[in-house]
Amino acid sequence: xxxxxxxxxxxxxxxxxxxxxxxxxxxxxxxxxxxxxxxxxxxxxxxxxxxxxxxxxxxxxxxxxxxxxxxxxxxxxxxxxxxxxxxxxxxxxxxxxxxxxxxxxxxxxxxxxxxxxxxxxxxxxxxxxxxxxxxxxxxxxxxxxxxxxxxxxxxxxxxxxxxxxxxxxxxx
Length: 172
Hints:
By secondary structure, the protein is an alpha+beta fold. The protein has helices at residues 10-27, 41-50, 107-121, 136-144, and strands at 2-4, 53-58, 61-69, 90-97, 126-132, 148-157, 161-171.
């Protein structure tokens, strides 16, 4: 079940960030996130407080999380979007995280499909998302879910991590 996260979920979401990043330190990875820098428990706390954090809850176990809102980073303004839309008509997916123990179970696709349904119900016309340009698994997931790559641009993730991003969009 995908649902709005509560304060009781914050520790589990933060732990899923840590699990993913520790796994990537040992095994290599694709996220470009940095343990202890981004994402952190503060990201989860802020999103829960703002009512923008959603979790996939499988019998009390948090198997995935994401933040969804209308906030587009400044870098979104550099992209030549095929589907232009007013800010309030764009749903943006942020920090989609699937911890290693939950990988390859279809949870990423479920989260993206939830975001699509949420966007429709919210009256949005477009969904946008960015991911690290070398994150081939994420780009592949989004493209399999009907997103198109709109462009690439360098960004400073939350003012902390310099990265090249791929920007993707989906027309509802």
